[in-house]
């Protein structure tokens, strides 16, 4: 990335106060999170892009952290990017049976809002906790034909690449993908391929889904992104597996 020059003296995770000042200047607002590890919580997509474009160090993306065990300790050299505040977008088309949501929205919030109008996203019925982006990044797609997986529910994805560019794959139409389907490079990538910003899902009427008597499947184990694709998407190796 063009801005990957050496960090200013003291602007490292070893000097939190100097790092906080550096990130405030970079993002344009103080998004520092008081925690045991250096962390920021951007309030919108623009701030995410500024961080990725201007911060030269390692970054670890975390949604709500529900996949971490109690004894997990992040790399001491990585800055944590929390996506929980990226929660301002919810665009639901009832006639088209699609919904576009921000990555930071809690899964249960999306489920409740859809249920209020008699619809659901089958792939989200597997989860009780976590954010949309966190669940997408932690759960790999499985080409097993099940109707409650990402392969059938995920129509579109908007992500921020490691060098801070917006990438969009798919869309709000059922047949809106031409060429290579790159959405599923990011499901199960644990944030190592980029930052998931928004997702578009196909919805089902609750009555129609219930009539099919499909038991929710158990979510597959958290995945690991393919090292070949990771090298292409993040040639400088700045993104650390998170979620």
How does this structure look, described?
The chain is 23% helix and 19% strand. By secondary structure, it is an alpha/beta fold. The chain has two domains: 16-85 and 229-240, 2-Layer Sandwich (Uridine Diphospho-n-acetylenolpyruvylglucosamine Reductase, domain 2), CATH 3.30.43.10; 90-224, Uridine Diphospho-n-acetylenolpyruvylglucosamine Reductase, domain 3. The strands form three sheets. A five-stranded antiparallel β-sheet has the order 4-5-9-7-8. Strand 7 and strand 8 form a beta hairpin. Mean pLDDT is 80; it is low at 1-11.
Comma- or semicolon-separated keywords:
Uridine Diphospho-n-acetylenolpyruvylglucosamine Reductase, domain 2; 19% strand; 4-stranded parallel beta sheet; 243 residues; elongated; 7 helices; 5-stranded antiparallel beta sheet; Uridine Diphospho-n-acetylenolpyruvylglucosamine Reductase, domain 3; alpha/beta; 11 strands
Tell me the layout of helices and strands.
Elements: H1 16-27, E1 39-40, H2 45-54, E2 58-62, E3 78-82, E4 90-93, E5 98-102, H3 107-115, E6 119-120, H4 132-138, H5 150-153, E7 154-160, E8 166-170, E9 195-202, E10 204-205, H6 206-211, H7 227-233, E11 239-240
Parallel strand pairs: 1-3, 2-3, 2-11
Antiparallel strand pairs: 4-5, 5-9, 6-10, 7-8, 7-9
């Amino acid at each position: 990335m063009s801005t990957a020059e050496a960090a200013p003296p003291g602007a490292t995770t070893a000097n939190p106060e100097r790092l906080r000042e550096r990130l405030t200047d970079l993002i344009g607002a103080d998004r520092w999170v008081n925690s045991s590890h250096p962390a920021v919580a951007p309030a919108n997509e623009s701030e995410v892009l500024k961080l990725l474009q201007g911060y030269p160090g390692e970054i670890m993306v975390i949604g709500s952290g529900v996949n971490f065990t109690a004894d997990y300790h992040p790399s001491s050299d990585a800055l944590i990017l929390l996506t929980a505040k990226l929660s301002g977008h919810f665009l639901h088309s009832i006639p088209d049976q699609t919904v576009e949501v921000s990555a930071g929205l809690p899964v249960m919030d999306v489920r409740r809002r859809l249920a209020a109008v008699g619809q659901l996203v089958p792939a989200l019925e597997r989860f009780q906790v976590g954010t949309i982006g966190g669940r997408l990044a932690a759960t790999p797609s499985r080409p097993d034909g099940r109707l409650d997986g990402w392969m059938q529910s995920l129509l579109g994805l908007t992500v921020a690449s490691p060098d801070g560019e917006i990438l969009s794959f798919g869309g709000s139409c059922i047949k809106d993908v031409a060429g290579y389907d790159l959405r599923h490079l990011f499901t199960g990538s644990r944030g190592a391929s980029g930052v998931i910003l928004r997702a578009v899902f196909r919805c089902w009427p609750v009555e129609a889904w219930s009539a099919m008597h499909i038991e929710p499947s158990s979510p597959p184990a958290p995945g690991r992104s393919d090292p070949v694709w990771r090298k292409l998407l993040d040639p400088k190796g700045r993104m650390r597996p998170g979620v």
